[in-house]
Amino acid sequence: MRSAERSVWSEGRDRVAASDPGLLRLAAGLRTVLSIALSLAVLAALDAGVTHLVAGAIAAMVATFAVREKQRAPQAVTLALGLPVALASVSLSALLNSRVLAGDAFFVVLIFCAVYGRRFGDRGTALGLIGFQTYFASLFVGVTPAGLPGFLGTVAIAFACAALARFALVPQTPTGILLRLREAFRARLAQLLEAQADLLDAGPDDVDRVLQQVREGTARLHETAMMIQGRLEEGTPDEAVARLVQRRIADAEIAAERLGLLLLTARSARRADTLTLHLPGAQLPERGRLPVRDEASDALRRDLAALALLVRRPVAAASGTGLAQVRNRLLGYRDDEHLPSASPAVQDVFRGIGEAARAVLGLRIALDGPQDDADDSPATARSREELDAEDAAIGVAEETEEPSEPETGLRRPTTRAAVQVAVGSLLAIVGGEFLSSQRWYWAVLTCWIVFINTASTGEILVKGYRRLVGTVLGVVAGIVLAGLVGHHTWTAFAVVLLCVFAMFYTAPLSYTLMSFFVTAALGVLYTLLHTYSLSVLVLRVEETALGAACGVVAAALVLPVHTDRRTNDLLTTVLDRLTEVTSAAMDQLSGGPPVDLLERARDLDQALADLRAATQPLTHPVTPLRTRRETARYVVALLETCAYHARSLAATAELLPTHPSIAADPGLRGAGERILRNIGAIATHVGDERSAEPVRTGPSIASLLNPGVPSTPRYGRVTDRVLRHLQRLDEAVVGLARPLDVPVAAPRG
Asked: Are 30 and 501 in contact (CB under 8 A)?
């Protein structure tokens, strides 16, 4: 019974960890709710009025979500600096309340400074947010000079409660966050392996659905790997440990993705295209074969389940002869003599399971220390020796990057955004005054928000659309909630706290949902302030639409950055990063000096993530340009395929010169020249459409390496695996030429 309870608890914990990596969203929601609740409790004990309660709740929320540094000491400094900024903002709002022109002019200047402050990093961004939001809160509750001292005290109490919630009630350290992110990676890896196992039994009618689950699982695993890499520096004791964890995370991710491709190949009538894992809607050739039940396939199902079990099982429970035998069997598949009798494609899957088991073993050693080796088989002992040799060589790679020349003047993104949002806010103030002389600030708030984390006109348009949809739906919910709570103060605040938690928990997932919960909470707050009416909520929608429109107009007319230009710039960056990773990996694989390949691969992944975000206006369901939408999706999918093969090349090159069974091959030095030349041709064309430099096709990469010798690659030879990745990378790069309208030249001679 207890074992069943532990199993249910463990499975539930894994699901939570996988759905919210690092529990970052849960912690953000709890911390904000607790800071607000503490503020309300203290203010209620001081017999503060409802207006002060609302002001305190808003100030506590702002003081909590504005601080974004990862280390606790910088967080404390930012919070301490934020208090005088908030007090000054509230004071100026009260003093300028009766001076319309002066107040509006100062608000525009404040908005410009708040956005411009982003150039100074997380602290500048936080102080700008605090200054703007507390000024807005003062307008919302109607702070006057006569009531200013009381509200200053309220803000101070709110900041103190926010500090208590952050540092005492819901503390987060970089080490703790990294530990939870590692658990999330483990849970998502197990979920991906289980989804891959479902491919074996999925019939023709179900294979597309299961393939979509595999595709989503692969993307979520990569997302978690990126989150871990972004926190290694703060969450690990030294650089060597950080590089070790980074390498093992990359190995596990690549091994899992490779295993999925091998399973797809085993199901299809021909080798599965890597693009199948990256392009939404892509299907297997001929929708895959029917599931087969034979001795080999049964063993495959058993071993995939065993691999997922090894991933899920906690280290403390991972001892025992039974588990050691399972681990030994899976690692034995790395040797051809241990493979079962089956077709070559199915045998490749068993080899992939062996490589994945090795990656899982390395991940466990890196994260949890040495494991019990009493029952090791020769294959397992060899895997441990390989991992030990790799670990011992960490830290030998050094490189110095030349700093890029920063943009200056109005070309600087923060300066341009500050000018745009100031102009948009000025338009929103003027238009908002026509709609309502009392609540014009809602238009300004929307204009401000649509510029946060956006960099092009298209992104601002999509964000404004999502905010408007969420606001309309939130107005409906606000009407219902206001009717239910009436003027019951503490019931209303309880509903507000629930909405605030939901707002922060869903913010990274859906901006529309976040806007919905914000507007629903506002409906309840209006009830507490005795200003609720249907007309007020309708006015909220009108002001939101106006603010979004002003933001779009300002972005389109003032120092505009069009979506095409931004995506082209980011596409060029991705191609440059792809060139760097591929060139450095090939140089190292052919005997060149070691460099930090995994860091370069991470830069490639980050550049690709930026491009994916920038193409959202092109791929959004409401876009009328369907052909353009499909083209953008196809290009991003091809680039994800390129990034996968580049990561695999980098991970293989990182094994040199420490891996006992892998040696550099000087013949590889020229194998990637055509790929690099083609990437350069595409990048040149993206930067200048008049460029006539073509992408060149030709014979296979293997035939270039060994002219006149038929290519018979075997999975176990590192050179053949490198050639396979190079061949797929070559095909994907040539595939980029068609959607980007780059000319393709036939082979010479």
From this structure: yes
Say which residue the tokens 């073993």 belong to.
361
Q: Quick check: 444 pLDDT over 50?
A: yes
Cβ(514)–Cβ(507) below 8 Å: yes
Asked if 546 contacts 521 with a C-beta cutoff of 8 angstroms, the reply is no
Alpha carbon of 59 to those of 491, 572, 587, 614: distances in Å? 20, 42, 55, 32
Phi, psi of 745 (to 5 degrees): -100, 140
Angle between helix axes 344-368 and 321-332 (nearest 10 degrees) is 130
pLDDT tens for residues 16-45?
Answer: 777 888 889 999 999 999 999 999 999 999
Q: Under 8 Å CB-to-CB from 384, ≥6 apart: which residues?
A: 361, 365, 373, 376
Burial track 191-201 (b if 16+ CB lie within 10 A, e otherwise): bbbbbbbbbbe
| Strand, helix or coil for residue 284 | coil
Q: Are 341 and 298 in contact (CB under 8 A)?
A: no
**In the 3-class helix/strand/coil scheme, how is 100-128 assigned residue by residue?**
HHHHHHHHHHHHHHHHHHHHHHHHHHHHH
Please list the residues that pair with 696 across neighbouring strands: 745
Average pLDDT of every residue of the chain: 84
CA atoms within a 13 Å half-sphere pointing along the CA-CB vector of 173: 7
Question: How many other CB atoms sit within 10 Å of the CB of residue 700?
Answer: 13
Please confirm whether the linkage preceding 707 is cis (ω < 30° from 0). Answer: no
**Residue 335 binned pLDDT confidence (cut-offs 50, 70, 90):** confident
Interval 469-481 mean pLDDT:
88
441 has a pLDDT exceeding 60: yes
DSSP 745: E
Higher pLDDT among residues 700 and 58, named by residue:
58
Length of the chain: 749
In this structure, are residues 446 and 547 in contact, taking their beta carbons and an 8 Å threshold?
A: yes
Report the candidate in 415, 557, 533, 536 with the shortest Cα–Cα distance to residue 116: 415
Question: Tokens 């759905």 identify what position?
Answer: 19
CA distances from 336 to 20, 220, 272, 333, 714 (A): 40, 32, 23, 7, 10
Q: For tokens 């010169």, what's the residue?
A: 657
Max CA separation in the chain (angstroms): 91
Residue that wins the pLDDT comparison between 591 and 645: 645
